[in-house]
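In response to a reviewer's request, we include the raw inputs and outputs for one of the modeled complexes. The three entities were modeled together in a single run.
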Amino acid sequence: MAPLDTPMPRSRGLSLATVFERYGLVIFLAVLMAVAAVASPTFLRPANLVNVLTIAAPLGMVVIGQTFVILVRGLDLSVASLMATVAVLATAFKATTNDAIPLIFLAAIVLSAVVGFLNGWLVARRNVSPFLATLAMMIILQGIRFAYTGGAPISTLPPGMGFLASGRILGVPVNLMTLAVLAIAFGIVLHRSRLGREIFMVGTNPKAAFLNGVAPDRVIILCYVICSVCAGIGGLFLLGYVGTVSNWVGQGYELDSIVAAVMGGVALTGGRGNIFAALLGVAVLMVINNLVLLLGFPIEMQLIIKGIIIIGAAAFYRTRLV
Amino acid sequence: MSAIAMEIRRNRLVMSYLIVAMLLVVLVVAGGFLSDRFLTWRNVGNLFQQLIVLGMVSLGQTFVVLMGGIDLAIGSLVSALTVFLANFLEWRPDLVWLALPLALVAATAVGALNGLLTVVLRVHSLIVTLGMSSIIFGATLMYRKEPGGSVPRAFADVAYAKIAGIPVSAIILVAIFALAGLWLQRTRSGRSIYFVGGDREAARLNGLPVDRIVVLAYALSGLCAGIAAIFLTARTGVGDPRIGVALTLQSVTPVVVGGTILAGGRGGVLGTFLGVLLVTMLNNLLNFVNVSSYYQWVIQGLIIIIAVGIHTSRRR
Amino acid sequence: MSSSVIELSQIEKEYPGVKPLDKVDFAVQPGEIHALLGENGAGKSTLIRVMGGAVKPNSGAITYLGKRVSWQSPKAARAAGIHVIHQELALFPELSVAENILVDAQPRGRFGLISNRARHARAAEILAQLGVRIPTHARIDELPLADQQMVEIAKALVGKVRLLILDEPTAVIAGHEVDLLFENMRRLRNEGVGIVYVSHRLEEIFEIADRVTILKDGQVVGTAPVGEISREEMITKMVGRRLSQIYPARRAAPADGPDILSVRNLRTGPRVRDVSLSVKAGEIVGVAGMVGSGRTEVAEAIFGARAVEGGVIEFDGKPFPGRVPKDAIAGGLGFLTENRKDEGLFLGLPISANIMAPDLQGITKYGLIDRSRECALAERQIHDFSVATPSPDVKVGNLSGGNQQKVLFSRWSRIANRLLILDEPTRGVDIGAKVEIYRIVRRLADSGVGVLMISSELPEIVGLSDRVFVMAQGRVVGEVEGEALGEEAIMDLAVRSIERHKATAEEIA
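The model returned the following structure tokens for the whole complex.
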């Protein structure tokens, strides 16, 4: 295809286009925040900002996981259903004291890991398309959950769960701190570790990865496990936020997490993306939602805007070169 | 390879159909044993009356999946149309003749828009239709948050009408499926769906109008959603902005169960029809034997996985 | 020259960093078979795509049947009577032969519906006209590659063709089928069709073509009637230098010592029936044969990327432990795949990651990638293999074909210290890079690595190998070495065995 054996001249100076391409999301977020600040004096108030971030934290955790899966050309539609299922599981201990919290966390993580493993196994070993595998998992979890609760909401929770959502340590909200820890930990895994390199290899070219000694199946399954565990933890934090366990905790998070990741430049074709950019996507989404409320628009407007930005973002990133 | 094995391999699709048909027979027989109400005329009549909504959305989904895409906007579109129809007919019950074509045209237009966006922006169909779904859902909710509106009696009767004991809706459904099958198998535009779904680049090199075919598939999906919405509105008598939420994903199940592969280019409407029958009858039977609807979800999920397991030829 | 079927003038096509076509003038007369000759990557495929409407040129004019045209799509070109047979078959594997042949001309019967019977009758008619017997109900993916190619050719006979373009149609067919193809081409020529024929088999061009145009690096370097240009002139024009300057000197004495690799009676997948071959240290062993003869599958089996169904693969005289590529890599093997974009490179990742891909172990510390070590190692490889790049952080997708190939060489030669398998190592690279790659391969062999090289380019096989195994239809049908090593001998072996196989198959049937 390429007869010229000269290297691509890469411009070192940043042209306007490259700036826009590379920092588009940051610029977009900054503009959005400026607009919000001008439009509503409430926006920049600490209380509002903390509120926005608090709502953002559980979604951020899910997005971290979703990024892993999308990077290996997958998709996880079962995250929201898993969040609700984990929330129901948390009540199953009927615990009224905080002693049970470690146990709840442990149980949630084990359940999530099993769910993730099944998703990954279906995708990697049985060649089920990620869409169908996780869709089936979503419905199955939903059925099991409802069968257990009989459809009714429950609220037997250790009081400490609320601390996850609104508590502070040294003035820093616990949920944000957790999100930051998860982001950094998984950021290192993805962008610095050997496993992360293997993930990018599998996502860019699974066949080549195999021929270079990587086991794509194993990597893919691990990504689904990571995704589910992140979603499970996110579910517990969300539960702390809403307080009562309805069977639909987390509803919509499967789509929101995909929207945020795509907005953050994670390519659905796999092999391209960055956890921190994906989290910026969460911030953009949250600021937009907040802006809609502050401007007094009906809340349904959020749905419309979300629809427009996911299509727009995907079209924007598609135009980038390799 | 033996001649018989060759023949079976060649007719993978026929095999898929046979498997689903056999499961159907098993289901009917089992149903007859498990519940004495299952095989009554009354129940069968009811069952066929229910087929049309799931049948139509699944048919629409089949077109798009065969073409190599997926349509996740179906549910929102159906919801929006029921809201439109019920509110329009509450306002002017005499304008049924106008409302129905209007709904179908709007549905087709939205479908075509989905197709156009995937073609023009070259964004994955999943993203485009997901985004559109969100937009339609939001717009519908802004107009009506709660179920509302009403329909004239004559229109509602359509949903329950019978000719010689057979529900009209079932006759219409079968007719539409037959037409769809004929179109897919025996016309150039119909075959083109398979070409584009099989290999888009090869279709382009063979001089097929790929973009037009993509848009056509989505437009047909929209049209099918429109027909589904008409019958749904007639049956429920109201416009419910959330009624279609579950339909999007439900529309995928019969398609997959019927042996159409998600990658496109292989499958057909007969499979989808059998899939719709299977799913509907199974849920119906589970109701009769008092399995909670919660477990029906679990079973539906398992069916998807098992169906994919049966139909995908294992690679490697 | 208003009598031309098609006339291109000053056609240019440019992609970022690449210019496949540079001011190309090209014309085809009615009733003429015009051969288009050039190295891989010379721009032939792009030129074909421009004529067929699949690629729009950046500038230049196309005159078709006396009118200026600008194709918007392959559909427009096709409707006007241009039929292209692409190198990658444009077939639908899930669908029947009949449907593939009549893809945009399905015969209609009653009520304007497609008639199944008419479809099969028409397809059978066309296949008969072509002179091949292929069942019209068969699905494409059931057919051998050669039959698939004949189906692709049959498509050209469906409508009214004014200009027929064939891109290396003989890569997967041989003997009788080639004769059939040529017969049909002559018939169409006599009916006044203009034919563009792309091939790098010079014998074929002398046999069938009236005129030849030679492309090099996206430019036309010569057009002449076939009778007025010699074989040597063609090669010199195409390659830009004399043959003797291209290949490094062969090793002085035949390699001795034990075999590194020994394959006996290998059977794998549907294609490989019975393959035995061997490689010694320091030896370049060529594997020749038609595309589709099972060569790649043999390489995959050796590398552990494909299950072995029968036979033995031995490494240093011991059964080879490689169940998966990982084990093979650990044992000192490397496999440079045929299709560098689909199976070799990680286009979206930097050069450094591509070079170090099979050796993550060597750059991992406490589970983390040691970036500075990775870059240092990669930079050394980039230097050793003179990959033209400003930095190891450049994404491989931004390199030219030749440099991408060098990245793959630098990857595998670093860790493949026993045996390196090369599958079409110079596909799609220009002659300069080719010469460098030949030097690299020889240098590796001289350092004691065994090299197993699969290639469709006979000159390359002959020019570089110490020993050659010829494959046909999943079997090794012969071994050539020393004085006997020549293109004729290899082709003879391949074609003769295919013909014999066909004859017996027909006797049985």
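As requested, we also summarize the result in words. The first helix of chain C runs from residue 44 to 52. Chain C touches chain A through 52 residues (CB under 8 Å).
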